[in-house]
Amino acid sequence: MKLAVLRHSMTGRRAAQMITGALTGSALAGGLIVVAGRDHPLASLPFDLLGVGFALWTAGWLLGPALFGGGDETLRPEHFSLLSFTPRRLAAGLAGAAFVGVAPLVTLVAFSALVVVAAKAGLGAAATAVGVLAAVLQLVMCVLASRLVTAVLGQVMRSKAGAALAALVSAVILAGLHSSWVLSPLAQAALRTGFPDPFSTWIAALPSGWGLVAVRAAGHGQWPTVAAALTGLAALGVVCWYGWAALLKRRLTTRRASGRPARVASGAWAKGPMTAVAARELRTWSRDLLRFHYLVFALCYALAFCLLPLAIDAPIFLPWTGAVFALWVAAISANLYGEDGTELWGKMMIPDAARHDVRGRQLAWLLVTAPPTLVLTAAMVVFTGEFDLWPWLAALVPALLGGGAGVTVLVSVLRPVPLADPHRRGGNLLENGTDFAQVLLVLILTAATAAPAYFAVRLGPVWAGPVTGLVGGAAMAWLLGRLAATRLESSAPELLLHLRTGVSPKRRRPAPALDRGRPHLPKPDLGLEKLGLDLAPTGRRAYVIASLTLCWVPLVAQGIVPALMLTTGQITRSWFLALHLPQHLQWPTVIAMIALGLVLLTTGLGIGLYYLAKSRRDGIEPDGGP
């Protein structure tokens, strides 16, 4: 069944995604094999590097669902709920199907580095044979552990504590990826002198390093250690399978509510339509697991991203923690109307409700975002003693808050992503996908609204920046909110149709209906799916994927970060190209990098959105179906 599904889905966008993922994974796997096969002056270095690589690869299997959705659901357990399968038998069948696909195959290639390092190090035929067995057992452990973690998260995320925990995990992972430059000095030192002994011990103690332990022990004739390591991998796989089987039974036989009933809050302060909407939105932010998860994610990401550079004694980002938090709250608020679903019909029946609804949402967003932003900013400035940054913070923070309040409602009206109605959603947040193109768009637009305040601080007197930031933020909130309200009033029926059916109003052909006359509501896409690239030529499709993937390197890592260092005077050279050049070339290099990143970003988004509009104009869904 899995092979048949994969065979019939290898068309258009899905085929491009699968091929791109296979090529990317194969390149990373090839890197591990190269590390295993190269000569190193330190005999233990290849094993340590492979231990780090295997740990990161295993972490991708375990924590990927927390970032990108509920894992591989090609065959869902619900498809077999009416068959006379015991939970263990169903788990055995689904476990077998889990090993069918591109990801397990690429992972097996990556773990074959165990065989290469055994042969290269001259540990003998026995160690090579142990490497083959260890690679297979490690693959089994990874796949089954991934299924177990996905099932556990599906159960845990039905509560606020679970939603917060998942947000913490995904925020730390994403912030770590965005702060990978912090590891550059540490990695360079490790390649010269080797990893510290405690670090090597911890890497080997992780389950991802047990295969390496078995190979090294086989080369030295330590067969009890070999048996213990391989048995540990096999036992861990069996435990994961049993746990997954138990959670499958729970998934098919029980259905928990998504969160506990919340106490009704007093709405005495709501004296008019706008404040009533704001009160409703505040209750939604506190009760809806999806919004609560996003809000905790924004806070954890801001803290992790700004605290990680302390590992190399670089507190440069700490005063900007509040600004980073405000940016990410704006990004995760990009789909306010899509999250509410068909509740929009109620507003259509009330005269002048659109304007009050938009303004109320803006007020609630500011009440949720502004206090933590100001507290984080003030606390981090006091903690670091960087009081000289007050003109920048006083200018950019109000601009970002006002811009975020306007951009979120405008993008939510212009580009909503249909979701199931809140009362129809399951408690598992992993089933609710995230449209990263929408998140990216709001991040860019919100940051752009702070441009006048930035140039006012850079070019004008001291008072010009704070005044420009405050006035500009208020103007952006009012103007963009007005545009959103006008758009909502003029296109509410079309927007409701889009939220109810998932079909653009500009399409020429109606969407196919499901059973009982219910229209088709697609699950939100993860990433580039919404860009409608099926109509694009292969070269342009590859350019869009490559540009949106790589634009962050010149824009943020080689542009914005060194610009911030040059502005504040807290310079850490690390891998920043501009900071290694003569002083008179530093700012031109930073500007060139930012320009290159913006060119890649805007051209990639422009081409993608062009073909999205073309697909809708021609009556074609982004996945290629009518």
UniProtKB/TrEMBL annotation:
UniProt key word Plastid: no
Record-annotated membrane-spanning stretches: 15-37, 49-69, 90-119, 125-149, 161-183, 226-248, 292-312, 318-338, 363-383, 389-414, 435-457, 463-481, 542-565, 585-612
Source domain of life: Bacteria
Phylogenetic classification of the source organism: Bacteria, Bacillati, Actinomycetota, Actinomycetes, Streptosporangiales
Protein name, entry field: Transporter
Keyword terms of this UniProt record: Membrane, Transmembrane, Transmembrane helix
